[in-house]
Amino acid sequence: xxxxxxxxxxxxxxxxxxxxxxxxxxxxxxxxxxxxxxxxxxxxxxxxxxxxxxxxxxxxxxxxxxxxxxxxxxxxxxxxxxxxxxxxxxxxxxxxxxxxxxxxxxxxxxxxxxxxxxxxxxxxxxxxxxxxxxxxxxxxxxxxxxxxxxxxxxxxxxxxxxxxxxxxxxxxxxxxxxxxxxxxxxxxxxxxxxxxxxxxxxxxxxxxxxxxxxxxxxxxxxxxxxxxxx
Length: 230
Known about the structure:
The chain is α+β, with helices and mostly antiparallel strands. Helices cover 30% and strands 29% of the residues. The protein contains five helices and twelve strands. The protein has a four-stranded antiparallel β-sheet with strand order 3-5-1-6. It has a four-stranded antiparallel β-sheet with strand order 8-11-7-12, covered by helices on one side. Strands 2-4 form a two-stranded antiparallel ribbon.
């Protein structure tokens, strides 16, 4: 199952759009660090199995203001993690924000027509941004392979990979989207819509992606997915 936690936060300082992802990441990281098990989990180089989006409602000038209330969503396929975050986030705060409420729901399992990235999708390569040296087919293959590996690891299985995942994909940005990262590094990402095949494995994998995100750095706010049912 995919679990969604909707957190309402009260801002203690103004937060710019360019800093928002880091501020939300800090809140989640510090919440995980309160527990010895999840502190160890956070430090491991492994699939984190959660993703999150940005503040809403959206501020048109890109400044989220002190004294106002905003919401953001965390999704995960890990029931234990969802239970921990539901309780621990309720009392969480940083120097920039304080959590007011946390509401949990389960994303219904229905046939999916398409999924689309709400936050930019990032894939890392040795040469930098993928478009300079990787074809669209190879880009899609990297996303598919990463998602299958995550699925196999989480469910301790090895699926038959002979299936069509997406019928076609559409890029919704005309130029790369900057994603500020740690240590003053900026990654480049894309907004993409994926039209989902109707076979059983494609549907299972796409539903899984709603929880964990698609691409890399899902636990850093990248690749958070919106969805539309058939």
